[in-house]
Amino acid sequence: MVGGGGREHAIAWRLAQDPEPPEIFAAPGNPGIAQVATCIPLSSMDVDALIGFAQGQRIDLTVIGPELPLLAGLVDRFTAAGLAAVGPTAAAAELEGSKAFCKSLLRTHAIPTGEGRVFTEFDKARAHIVAAPGPMVVKADGLCAGKGVVVCDDAAEALAAAERMLVHGVLGPPGRRILIEERLQGEELSVFALTDGEAIYRFGEARDHKRLLDGDKGPNTGGMGAVSPVAGLPEGLLEQVEREILVPIIHALKVEGRPYRGILYAGLMLTPGGPKVLEFNVRFGDPEAQALLPRLEGSFGDALARSVHGGLEGATLSWSPRTAATVVLASPGYPDRPQSGAVLEGLEEAAGPDALVFHAGTALRDGRLVAAGGRVLTVTGLGKDLEAARAAAYRAADRIRFPGVQLRRDIGLKASPAEARA
User: Fold this and answer.
1) pLDDT band, residue 420 (cuts 50/70/90)
2) Which long-range contacts (CB under 8 A, 24 or more apart) does 233-239 make?
3) What is the tens place of the pLDDT at every residue in 219-269?
4) What DSSP element (H or E) covers 368?
């Protein structure tokens, strides 16, 4: 298991629940992952060391959690070394690594998405914004740790965002090229799939909450919570997403000479005209994985192996009817200036049959568990319905204590677009 966040803890934990659980190593892992795996002090970006370890231990399968190692070609290097690794090649991972590439691919293959144009010069971006004022979204082309997307209510906000990226370079090289899109209206939905490049297994859906504060207010974050499944979806919607978006994008990448294997995450807007693509990610979401994986039944490891070796149609997976609600506990100062070092208490009291605690940004210092990142823990409650899952999640979250903890109290109670703008 490559990585050391909350998503990777959820993946390692779920692999350990398999009918025939594997022996798991994690690089670098975290104190929570250490409960189900052997953690090794290797960076997720140290490709040579990871390959050497996998060869020395005769590892059967490597699962890559974060996007950066995928974009850096970790799967390519493992494959060249004769090692099996779950995830797309660097070329296929550009689907997440470049929003301009993604938008071009969607247009070329007539996959539903919003209108958008790419700019590298501020004067041209300004002319475009002034000519088409109104709500729009300004996106840095590359990865910016969740800070590269600015949702704008008017032209003034869009001009300011474009100027910060193109003129002032506040996001560095990833923001030197931007995508300006129309702002789609509707409800957001995340749909996941596992693919071997041919067959697709639709891997559930979730709805996350990106804003820091209740009511979808405050700055965007990496995600403050999620629920799965999503109630109230129109009948046949997920089948439509598979037919019109998931299958076509896998075919498009194959046609472009970038065959895709592994987990695919489609971020969608459910517009009056049907589902449209906002973005693709080339791995599980965080905290969506913490809501999805506790509901998964069957052999997760076997399905992941099939995404590498083929034969995914033979996977034996199913989903629990229970609902999962996941709440993120973040450090004071997150997302801009998270403070680390606070001692964490109450984790053992929080965990139970209906509540799971996943470590995201934690560390052991002098024998004590402390906060070591922006998003520190994710707590997943499970119940017969959303109300029960929320109650279990918040009951557990309230047993965890550290100074200045930030959490939303409305996970699962999605505000309407009008309420979110109020």
Assistant:
1) very low
2) 233/189, 233/205, 237/270, 237/275, 238/191, 238/202, 238/205
3) 889 899 999 999 999 999 999 999 999 999 999 999 999 999 999 999 999
4) strand 368-371
Number of folded domains that form the chain:
4
One-letter identity of residue 175: G
Residues 195 and 169 in one domain: no
Phi/psi of residue 144, nearest 5 degrees = -135, 35
User: What is the CATH classification number for the domain harbouring 292?
Assistant: 3.30.470.20
Residue 48, burial from CB neighbour count under 10 angstroms (0-12, 13-18, 19+): exposed
First to last CA, the chain: 42
Contact 252, 352 (CB under 8 A): no
Say yes or no: 282 and 351 in one domain: no
241 and 309 both lie in a single domain: yes
Instruction: Report yes or no on 114 lying in a domain.
Output: no
Place of tokens 């231990």: 57
Q: Which of 271, 295, 319 is the last residue of a domain?
A: 319
User: What is the CATH number for 376?
Assistant: 3.90.600.10
Q: Give pLDDT, residue 421.
A: 32
Answer yes or no: are the C-beta atoms of 190 and 268 closer than 8 Å.
yes
Looking at 284, 303, 319, the residue that finishes a domain is: 319
Q: Is residue 187 within 8 Å of residue 249, measured between CB atoms?
A: no
The parent domain of residue 170 ranges over 121-176
pLDDT tens digits along 293-327: 999 999 999 999 999 999 999 998 999 999 999 99
Is position 107 within any domain?
no
Convert the pLDDT of each residue in 368-396 to its tens digit.
999 999 999 999 999 999 999 999 999 99
Residue 132: the pLDDT is 83
Instruction: Report d(CA 159, CA 141) in Å as an integer.
Output: 16
**Collapsed DSSP state (helix, strand, coil) of residue 91:** helix
